[in-house]
Amino acid sequence: MRPGELNSYRLPPAWRWLSARLWSLEHAYERATASGRLQDDARIRILFVLAMFTAGFLTLAVGATHSALFSDAGKNTGTLAAPSGARADLVDRNGQLLAVDLPHYGLYVDSREIWDVSETRTALMAALPGLTRERLDRALRGDRREYLLGGLTPEQRAVVHNLGLPGVVFEEESRRVYPLGATAAHIIGFSDRGGAGIAGAESALDDVVRKAAAVPGQSVPLSIDLRVQTALEDELQKNAVSFQAIGAVGLVTNVRTGEILALASYPDFNPNRPGLTPPNNLLNRAAASVFEMGSIFKVFTVAMGLDTGRVNLSTTFDATTPITVAGQTIHDFHAEKRVMTLSDIFLHSSNIGTAKLALTIGGPTMERYFQSFGLFAPAKIELAETTHPILPNRWSDNIVASASFGHAMSVSPLAVASGMGAILNGGNLVPLTIRKVEAGTAPAGKRVISEATSRSMLDLMRLNVTHGTGASVERAAPGLRVGGKTGSAEKVVAGRYDRSKLVSSFAAVFPTDGPIDGDRYFILILVDEPKGNKESYGFATGGWAAAPAVGRVAERIAPSLGVRRAEIPTSAAPIAPVQMSGGDH
């Protein structure tokens, strides 16, 4: 077909130009052949091939440039999908690594390719101490490739690889690693080999961690601060061992944001080997256990009374003699036997005075306030382990009186932390969170008490540390303006309260001064069934078994939290603590 014939088809100009050039080359070839100039013929053919290759490369270059500049590919994420089961790193609020996916290897044996079974058996048993002889022999006797062992580190793989054994091969497999071992184990949790979160943050934030794995370099920050976490764990464990406790709980929260800065449950476990851990150690006692809390509940009761406006700190109640309510006699463990102001009732931890306050306010009002403090439901937090409280069926006068000082109902330590936060942050119930809250922001809360009530409770808790049952905290953390309340609850055994088995605790806040809506930190130490020791003169109540540990925690974490120590006048009189022979019940 001639160029003129091509034009008759009305091809685009570019094609008409290209066809004309090809016909020109062909005519040149014909002319060279007719004249016998073979050298010119070869040059023309080379030129022709070069022109074709140049046109091809130009076409590819134009296409690639168009794709790079104008294609929609990569506009959404710009990354490839993460491998199945991949999980993003977990880090603390300051970027310190908590959990990471690392390459490991599965070891396989194909008996059909093994030259010397005895040599292979001896070499593998020597190189891999965790390998059982029975499992290896079963694989060596098989007639196909068998999975032998998983989770080999690169170093272990290199040792086996260097043996040069025929029939021994490896396949890469990802494995979740917790480089800090037992540190923060109960809040971090762990995942299974398939990459699914099983407990703690690994379970609660499973979808978030999986999605973040698709973005190279992206990690998921938790709310905890490793500096605070390690200090809390260290003091909690030493304290639990000292008092031979069967369990213990430690919490540090920011009451403004609801962030969990540290969470510890004793005994702990290593999330790298959860399958080898006793079930008791896996239990997150802060979230999944409930306790009758004892006198730290007086914080809720007094706050309720003040917020109703029916009483103030100067209102008096007669605590001269025990009272009997529906057949139950309520008495003080270190009786003052006098008329006491509400402030004195709190400082001396009077059960009689607190019960009379609650009965004065009434059951319906107590129910309404306790519910608003979040004590009637699992603590609002991402952790799946958070559990329901054990509540009375009916709020009789007997129950109202008992609940006022921490008996007759059982709640989790997390629920206590959430409710206390509302009392100490200006009056807003803010959900707890294990996610980092960005600076300058705070989750929306629900107002449950007034700012005036909140300020009164901060001042009262501070007074309890300087002149009440929490005096040991001030000695351990001078100048940090810590406030708090002791608690000691007898456990129910066979339907009766057993005075030899206590749940001893101390709930604290610092600093108690400063703006009502500023950053403020709550500390809870709870010790389950402590036994008195030499240092405590045989006592195991909250003032002895929990309060000193809270002071030591506050002293250690204050620099990390930016809490400055106030100057202490050298002429200040020594603190005269209230007798703690049992008065913090």
Describe what you observe in this structure:
The protein is an alpha+beta fold. It folds into three domains: 3-64; 89-220, Penicillin-binding protein 2a (Domain 2); 230-270 and 287-561, DD-peptidase/beta-lactamase superfamily (Beta-lactamase). The chain is 39% helix and 18% strand. The strands form six sheets. Strands 1, 2, 3, 4 and 7 form a five-stranded mixed β-sheet that branches. Strands 9-8-18-17-16 form a five-stranded antiparallel β-sheet, sandwiched between helices. Strand 5 and strand 6 form a beta hairpin. Helix 10 packs antiparallel against helix 22 (547-561) and helix 13 (298-308) packs across helix 19 (451-467). It starts with a helix and ends in a 24-residue tail after the last helix. Mean pLDDT is 87; it is low at 1-9, 73-80 and 571-583.
Low-confidence stretches: 1-9, 73-80, 571-583
The CATH superfamily of the largest domain appears as DD-peptidase/beta-lactamase superfamily
- Number of self-contained structural domains: 3
* CATH fold title of the largest domain: Beta-lactamase
The outline comes out as elongated
Distance between the termini: 109 Å
Give the CATH architecture of the largest domain: 3-Layer(aba) Sandwich
Mean pLDDT across every amino acid position: 87
Biggest sheet descriptor? 5 strands, mixed
Structural class: alpha+beta
Number of helices: 22
Gyration radius (Cα, Å) is 36 Å
Number of strands: 18
How large is the share of residues in beta strands? 15-25%
